[in-house]
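hi! just following up on the protien thing from before. the input was this:
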Amino acid sequence: MSVTKQFIRYVTQNIFGMLGISCYIIVDTFFISKAAGADGITVLNLTLPIYSLIFAIGSMIGVGSATRFNILMAQEDEQCEYYFSNAICFVWMIGILFTLAGIFIPDKILAFMGGDATIVKLGVGYAQTFLLFTPFFMTNHVVSAFVRNDNAPSLAMAATLAGSFFNILFDYIFMFPLHMGLKGAALATAASPIVSICICSIHFFDRKNTIHLKMRMPSLCRLWQSCQLGVSAFVGEISSGVTTAVFNFLILGLVGNSGVAAYGVIANFALIAMAIFNGVSQGAQPIVSACYGKGDMASVKKILRLGIGTAAGIAILLLVGVYGFTDVLVALFNSDKSIELAEYAHTGMRLYFVGFLFAGYNVVGTGFLSATERAKESFVTSIMRGFVGIIVCSLLLSAMFGLNGVWLSFPASELITALLMAWILCRGRRTSNK
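and the predicted 3d structure came back as:
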């Protein structure tokens, strides 16, 4: 099969899988808005950074370990067999720490994220429930990444979609017929990765399976080697969480809870957009790492061009869709018919989504750098877009332009990162041609 056909197969299926995750987030937000109004959306938005941190750690270890597995497998190195069990051990060790936080301090976590007494009281059961299931969220990232990299992207996609469908169905059942409120929404979300893991596990009984759970003492060295290659996946997940956390604090100071609720609407649609770009990047990663492991640099460069072109086309479609249907999208989550929320979200959506013209290029670029063992460059670009750029731009622009400055900080930070990324990729091209 040609690399172009492989690219289309892997990326298409991975995008559908990531869209499945995004759909349940959107439906979750819709149900919460119906059950608890603007305060419910505020609770969800204050907990999104915690979700992002959990997903980011799981994704970094999962994608990084699977990438290292692929490269070593292509080189016929027997050490590849130990990366799966190592990843599973570490995500459970880290996940249990989050579980303990959910048992003992969920109220303090919500308060730390900016919730007032009303929000903390409403959201403590929600936060506690999903934190208890953290090891399963992280394990799901590891299992799906390895199954996808082991030439079974269709099964990984099916598992993700099944988990998302379960979440949507039981969101409704728990929240409305069973009257469990926000805690029911968290329970449905928390159980969905278990469904995905069970479906992905079918691959381990396949004759073509090359993934084996070979237990050894957990190795920090292997973890570090994996995390170096998973940093782009980490930032792909955590950047939305960092952005949400910083924006929440700035918006609370500027306009209060109504502004945070409006940003909750924007953030959920932004998660869909980012999930699509992560789908392109993570879908291309197994092909890039396999070609790189074989020394086929012509195919590696071709996949990069395909990835960037795909991201650019998607970005344009997203921007057209948002500008054409802004008010319709906002109204879906404005069950209280708040005029303030509608006004804030209308302007915010249009300004914020301009950033995706550059974000797709950055996500694909960082994924490419990781898959070709350019860990330092991937780390630099990831830190720029996920932390430094967004924090500096949001602080400066909010001080200059108020709430509109907050919305504009995302496009500004992504543009700065895109310029840095273009320089790094061009420099790498010149070096490889020498």
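Residues 3-428 form one domain.
The mean pLDDT is 88.
cheers
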